[in-house]
Design brief:
Layout lengths: L15 H12 L21 E4 L8 H11 L3 E5 L11 H14 L3 E6 L11 H10 L4 E3 L11 H22 L2 E5 L12 H7 L8 E3 L2 H7 L4 H8 L7 E2 L1 E5 L4 E5 L8 H10 L5 E3 L12 H16 L3
Parallel strand pairs: 1-2, 1-10, 2-3, 3-4, 4-5, 5-6, 7-10
Antiparallel strand pairs: 8-9
Helix pairs in contact: 1-4, 2-3, 3-4
């Protein structure tokens, strides 16, 4: 388990408006400050349904925003990470443009997906998070931690704790909340869920949350998923929705359109009962092609999944 050798960078708190003004000045962008509300203010859009825009990284911000608004989404979960729609090194120049473009089309950008899981220069942690917070983005999805299965698990969790502590402290200072996604797999921290609870239990849900992925939860615990939900429910901030299905011809789990997989109706009832604070994020994983030629198929899938989820919650 890698160690975090970069100390938490301490800086004086900067308001989002001041940070945005600095970004605009340095990048030469002519954005209208009055149109950019503080995160958490009553002016913020409150999106109900967003989607992960990873399949559309070849599109311009304008093309992405136009189509997302056209098919009826409230906002976008946007990749700002190595290999993402915006690279970390370009965040100060490009993220303000993306935010303004989305908001022009009535779309919220409450959540960015990052490659960040510690405070470090290598991950450009402070630059990415300070820029995002300055633009009113309130949440970021963290990169995963992974286990070395040849080493004791408890010791590896202990090694993660100081990295997580520093990241939560920086997020709290800047006003942007980290989210960790549970993911199925043999070496993912958070796959069995109990380990994720052990890492988060010393913090409040206002400090860190979970992007709770019901698809991965069902793969890891087809019958025990509700125990996992109950364990984590106070930390669940943003539900990720994708439907797993058993592919008998491949002898493995795969993905299906919403309504065709194995998400039980009881899960949707729990989401309504517990009134999860964040938007619901749709992730289309069942299309196996990529690139611009696949875009019409993805847009059709996103439209279909949005219509389905609206009947559920």
């Amino acid at each position: 388990m890698p160690e975090n050798n970069a100390p938490l960078i301490t800086t004086r708190p900067v308001s989002r408006r001041s940070a945005l003004r600095t970004l605009i000045t340095s990048s030469g962008l002519a954005l209208a400050l009055p149109a950019m509300p503080h995160a958490g203010s009553t002016e913020d859009p409150k999106p109900r349904f967003i989607f992960f825009s990873k399949p559309f990284q070849a599109l311009s911000f304008e093309e992405l925003a136009q189509k997302a608004a056209e098919i009826g989404y409230d906002g976008i979960e946007f990749p700002v990470r190595p290999g993402g729609h915006i690279e970390p090194a370009a965040v100060a120049d490009q993220l303000p443009v993306a935010v303004e473009t989305f908001r022009k089309h009535g779309l919220a950008l409450p959540l960015i997906t990052t490659g960040i899981n510690r405070v470090s220069q290598a991950q450009q942690t402070e630059q990415v998070l300070r820029t995002a917070a300055g633009l009113g983005i309130t949440h970021f999805r963290m990169a995963y931690y992974k286990y070395d299965l040849n080493k004791p698990i408890p010791a590896q969790l202990d090694a993660i704790r100081p990295m997580l502590k520093d990241l939560i402290a920086l997020g709290t200072e800047l006003g942007i909340k980290p989210l960790y996604q549970n993911h199925s797999g043999s070496d993912y921290v958070g796959a069995p869920v109990w380990d994720l609870y052990e890492l988060l239990k010393d913090y409040t849900p206002n400090q860190i949350g979970i992007a709770y992925d019901i698809g991965h939860a069902l793969i890891e615990g087809t019958h025990s998923w509700e125990i996992q939900f109950q364990l984590l429910k106070s930390y669940i901030d943003t539900p990720y929705i994708k439907a797993p299905t058993w592919q008998s011809d491949r002898n493995r789990f795969g993905w299906a359109p919403l309504g065709q997989g194995i998400i039980p109706n009881k899960y949707y009832q729990l989401l309504k009962t517990h009134k999860i604070p964040g938007p619901t994020s749709i992730h289309v994983e069942y299309i196996e092609t990529s690139g611009p030629a696949s875009h019409p198929t993805y847009w059709q899938a996103l439209t279909q999944d949005l219509n389905t989820i609206k009947t559920k919650i």
